[in-house]
Amino acid sequence: MSRTVDVLVSGRGSNLRALVDAGVVPRQVISDKECEAIYWAQSMGFATAVVPFERELGRDAFSDGIFRAVTRVGEPDLVVCAGFMRILTQPFFRLKCPVVNIHPSLLPAFKGANAQQMALDAAVLVTGATVHLVTEELDAGPIIGQIPVWRYADDDLESLQKRILEVEHKLLPFCVQALMRGDIEVSDGKLLVPRDWTQKCMILATEGRG
Ligand code: GRF
User: Is there a smaller number of Cβ atoms within 10 Å at the N or the C end of the chain?
Assistant: First the structure.
């Protein structure tokens, strides 16, 4: 019985497309608003749902709405936040399955929005992308995979975002497929990774680099 995955999106959907290009078939795609990602998912024939964020109702009501959209057809084996830009609170975490997110920095550095700008402002030599387990604490869950991206002296926000996005599109499918195959397990919120997992991430990071 193959494992099922729901994908949460908010915008452009480039990470969703990278997942699908890598052979991941979403059980459903859910977003907080009508967006390019949802329109693309509909054009691909995937089940979709939009749960609008209503500021006056607050995060708990929104998180409950996302929980209900995910579980309307039963729990998936995995939920992936792919460019999902909303904070999820306790009502969402009634989910039993693991939830993973792609973040455009080497966590724990540069949590939250604007991670790429913060890396530029800090003039770091290296930043990158992280896939991590999602917990109630923002961008703080156990780290599954990372790929470094060097900051060039002439980088601006656009050039750095572009290079980080390129590695996101490699890292997220790599980690999601490992979870779907059972190479990586999550037990009581703890990650169980294969002994050679770091080497596998290093190889992934160097693939396709001249
Ligand atoms: C990506 O940089 C991702 O890391 C962040 O949202 C950005 C857009 O992602 N969470 P996408 O193109 O919508 O997948």
Answer: C
Among 149, 109, 144, smallest CA distance to 128 is for: 149
Q: Is 19 exposed, middle or buried (0-12, 13-18, 19+ CB in 10 A)?
A: buried
Question: Would you tell me how many other CB atoms lie within 10 Å of the CB of residue 146?
Answer: 20
| Torsion sign, CA atoms 16, 20, 23, 24 | positive
Atom number of ligand 1 nearest to Cα 103: 4
- The CA 31 to ligand 1 mean position distance, Å, reads 13
From ligand 1's centre to the CA of 11, what distance in Å? 8
What DSSP element (H or E) covers 102?
strand 99-103
Query: Is the distance from CB of 100 to CB of 157 less than 8 angstroms?
Result: no
Q: Which of 102, 106, 139 to mutate to test the pocket of ligand 1 (most atoms within 8 A of CB)?
A: 102
Give Cα separations from 84 to 31, 35, 137, 162, 185 (angstroms): 7, 11, 15, 18, 23
Q: Average the pLDDT over 23-36 and give the result.
A: 98
CA distances to 49, 79, 115, 140 from 109, in Å: 32, 24, 8, 10
Q: What is the pTM of this model?
A: 0.96
Using one digit for the tens of pLDDT, what is the confidence trace for 84-99?
999 999 999 999 999 9
Residue 133 tokens read as 């387990």
